[in-house]
Amino acid sequence: xxxxxxxxxxxxxxxxxxxxxxxxxxxxxxxxxxxxxxxxxxxxxxxxxxxxxxxxxxxxxxxxxxxxxxxxxxxxxxxxxx
Length: 82
Fold this sequence. Notes:
Layout: H1 5-40, H2 46-56, H3 63-78
């Protein structure tokens, strides 16, 4: 059964969100690895850890990020291949 344009757009939005979620999970894992290293190093005090957390915590993606990513995906699949 063929999908209508709304279903295709929804699929692309979901794909974009999944891609952003995967990227954020990777960034989050790296952040926690660095944080664990800092905690294990002698002399890493609370203020250093707090500063690191404040500056380096990966931001959550936004609705605009999802729309931008989905537009890029949509443009890719709808390009005229000549």
